[in-house]
Amino acid sequence: MKKKWISVLLAGTMILSLAACGNGGTDDSSGDGSSQEKVTLNVLFNDTDENVEAEMDYVMDHIAEVLPNVEVKLEMVSGDAETYETKVRTMISAGGDGIDVWWERGGSWATPILESGSALALDDYLDKSGYWDKVIASTENAKADDGHMYGVPFEDISYEIILYNKAVFAEHNLEIP
Q: What is the pTM of this model?
């Protein structure tokens, strides 16, 4: 569980720092997040179960350690994916008040948001931060149809290891899988 919390913290931190460095109302024209002015970010996240709640509690408890100049206001939307997606689209259609950063699973539900110009392309920040040197090449596939990055893909990854008994495999002339 701790490993999952750490990965959520890292992912949350990356998302929030990208949004903060996108010049979200600060005097940080460099885009490097060095502004001393406190930035408030309204974050919307889908509350699907108690594990998500615990993970986001952990993120909220520790986000100031990584982003001391960012005040995060988290709103958890209970319910299924459709309820959450409807809330995001409605908030953006109403002018975007109360939503700066949101979690998006991918797929076509966000297409109208991108087409309306309601999401900030993160290309300049990602380029300046050295992001592309730190991620796997397939991350490039996360770009929108217009060739821009509007979000930072992340996934909890765990590696599975298969252990085998060499003597038993040798005795039965088995090949290593």
A: 0.61
